[in-house]
Sequence to fold (457 residues):
Amino acid sequence: MQQKFQVLTMAAILEASSFFSSKTYNTLTNSPPNSHTCPSKPTFLTLRNTRSPSCAKNASLSSSPRDPEPDSESDSTRDRRRIVRVAWEKLVRWSRSWRSKSKTDVLERTRKVVVLGGGSFGTAMAAHVANRKAQLEVKMLVRDPQVCFSINERHRNCKYFPDHRLPENVVATMDAKGALLDADYCLHAVPVQFSASFLESVAEYVDPGLPFISLSKGLELNTLRMMAQIIPQALQNPRQPFVALSGPSFALELMNKLPTAMVVASKDKKLANKVQQLLASSHLRISTSSDVTGVEIAGALKNVLAIAAGMVEGMNLGNNSMAALVSQGCSEIRWLATKMGAKPTTITGLSGTGDIMLTCFVNLSRNRTVGVRLGSGEKLENILNSMNQVAEGVSTAGAVIALAQKYNVKMPVLTAVARIIDNELTPKKAVFELMSLPQVTLTLLFKEPYYAFCFML
Fold:
């Protein structure tokens, strides 16, 4: 289906391009492309300084106010608009047909979805899924009694979204057994560093075939495990169905139903398609991928890079520094991810570059906020104590140095963040050290031909 859609897209583009290269040209010039006759009116294809005298004379005559304006240009404009409109309509019709053919009864068959965690993103996804079908039971397993009461009695998460009313079919509970009983899908929104211990405590209530959709981004500090490894190992079930959900998305904008695009990654293609159909809506576009490693590594390390970007902002180092640092950080993430088996295209896609741009440049990012406050001179302990959300990049930064050593990858920017968090460096000293590194052009071996860059930091 996707290949056929791509073929149709290319056909429409070629149809439009062939029109512009032949018919439109002929209409504008009133002559064949190979004709040496002079057009009756100067067009955008004619250079003023290279027109012959006769051409200039004809042009001046044709533009005389006493002569009627030729219809050739207006006709060509109408034809150009028509051909683009026809090509676009073909794409839209095929897109609708493709969606209707690929649609299954996944949503119709789904009766219950459980969300593990009552944080901002878990709440936003619970509301999103609940809005997909009014008859769907959405259970949120939370640990805060106040949040539980607020969701059930006031239909609001008083801690994160006090001004947003949740759908009626979202119900909070502190009973793990009741929440997980007969669930069709599980959205895991527990912070990475607490996931293993939490899952071990509820493992006896988890059905071996229950698909886990991980919303958590990060690496476990001591073990360097990703969620794709943490979940099945904590549940003692290596065959536990797993899907990673990632991409540029803030919980607040998802709650406001603003257009959002994300990626679901799973080694089980059928499962990825089912989750896509479960979550996709008019304002949430879901793509599928089989590169779980790439999606998870990019989602984890972009938080560390966002802390670095925040420090540049907090220190008022300017836009030049910001662009250099983020681009260098993107390269470091790509080097490590590909060494770990990820696809380079994943790192440059939605769950990679897309998520990096959002997290590094937008004030809603809590990891970027940590960096801004560090760059302004605040102590990390005071920053974390004042936050009501977890900044995963702080913990994940500790895993960066170990990963860089394990895979023999030089990661100066991300390593500097880890050293700042560990109080080995101050932000100002880190900038001085990075700027003092050798300025050489590195071209890597032919085994990695897509890497050729100037190492500027």
Notes: The longest helix spans residues 72-102. The beta strands are 112-116, 137-141, 170-173, 185-188, 212-214, 242-246, 260-265, 284-289, 440-443, 452-455. The longest strand covers residues 260-265. Confidence is low (pLDDT under 50) at residues 18-66, 441-457.
